[in-house]
Amino acid sequence: MNDIMIRKRKWQFTIFLIIMIAATYASSIITDFNALHGITTFPAALYWIFSNMLISQETLTRLPSILDKLLETIFMSIAATTTAAVISMFLGLMGSTTTRVNRAFSSLARFTASISRNIPVVAWALILLLSFGQNSLTGYLALFVGSIGFLTRVFIETIDEASQSSVEALRATGATYFQIVNKAVIPQCLPLLISWILFMIETNIRSATLVGILTGTGIGYTFDLYYKSMNYNVVALVTFSIVITVIIIELLSNYIRKVIL
Amino acid sequence: MEVANIRRKRDGRITIKAGSKAEALMVSTLMILAVLTMIGFLLFDYSGLELKKAISETGNNLKTMFLEPALTHFSWGEAIYQVGITVGLAFLATVLGAVISIFLALFAATNLSNEWVSKVIRIFVAVIRAVPTVLWVLIFAIAAGLGSEAAIIGMLFHSIAYLVKAYSEVFEEVDEGTLEALRATGSNWWHIVMHGVIPSTLTYLMSWTFLRFEINFSVAVAMGAAAGAGGIGFELFMASGFYFDLREVGMITYAILVVAIILEIISTRLKNRYFPSQ
């Protein structure tokens, strides 16, 4: 009996493996990916990076303008996240099964979140660029829409999980909807919600670079500018400044998480 | 007996909130974020923006996009082929990433490796993750040339960073007793991994890998648009940036949306099945 089971599992695994290899092969044909070429260029690429992307004395003179753009990007990500968090809080309360007003609103909230999450940030950036033009607000709005989708989903999950019993208890005492939300839902979920908000800020700083390249705002634009003019020393400086920013923000939010959770 | 520890406000009312460090930190975090947001809005560069016009224009654009989608520059077959390329990019980055990550994660898991090696891998992964994917792709594109190789290597980096973290956490949850039993039989490290660790965690590993595939799909769209990796993302970039063809943008957006929603439904099912607590 056991023997048959093991043999069956082995068969399943082999078939799965064959399908995976076939799919990998098909994908590499369709995307024109040559694994050998990829592997052989990899060391060359690394060597190139280490020999060309050096920060020289001269590039440091560009540092103030880079920091200026970096600051803009950080503010953009934070502003997009906090404003999206406020909207998502309402959508989350509407969408969660414990706190929803009625079924229709709940579906509406989930649907809105799903649409704004599943259309990639890139698409939003390109769509908004057409009418908002090349300024900070375009990048901000693209991040904002994407953040709403993600935050609403996790807020709904958090509220669903955390507050079932206390909401029931408060409802039994005859508390109003506002009192239930204010005294049971928010205090219980707040640490997790803040943790998600911090996560979103980290993610948004990284996506802001991408959005910046497309919409010509923030640090992404600076990167693109020097990248296209092949000034790789400055490109290295920009990359390093992004890395340091992301790591600092990650350490900060890890500290906050450790205390509040 | 008098209770000494009741704290009262100045007017004699009992304070009901104790006030801990965690609470103070939460409040100050939110306050700081709110202040930074306001400063951000003041500092933004609003050059060339006419808000009213922009909003109504966006409204019109969205209406054209979503209500009258059409393909003009390429056929349906071509569109499906381009979506296929994007899925292919995501798939390759995920599969190659998964294979590399399993090995790295084995060395990163604290119960299977020594502390020092595990720390080095974790720091390495954190640095990799700090560089946005698009920068990895563009930097590799200088050396390897624009195309699928640079895109896949760039996406691979972040996939590895994500999967190593997820896998090593899964490995760390393997029952210590199982490992000990295998060790007692004289199994070497490789035996323990092949017969104890991998079989008991396989379903979790596969779910995490699929979750990454879902992420990689949208990353692949982005790389097509921003780093010239081809696929539907590139078509989206061309349609909106060069042809200004809103109907086509709408159609492409729908195509992306359909794939993304299918992937999301599958991954939600997987999550509910294998990670019910999360």
TrEMBL record, chain B:
It is a multi-pass membrane protein. CDD domains: TM_PBP2. Pfam families: BPD_transp_1 (PF00528). It is found in: Cell membrane. The lineage of its organism: Bacteria, Bacillati, Bacillota, Bacilli, Bacillales. The chain crosses the membrane at residues 24-44, 79-108, 120-144, 189-211, 217-237, 249-267. PROSITE patterns: ABC_TM1. Residues 83-267 form the ABC transmembrane type-1 domain. Its main location: membrane. The keyword Cell membrane applies. Belongs to the binding-protein-dependent transport system permease family. Gene3D superfamilies: MetI-like (1.10.3720.10). Keywords: Cell membrane, Membrane, Transmembrane, Transmembrane helix, Transport. This is Phosphonate transport system permease protein.
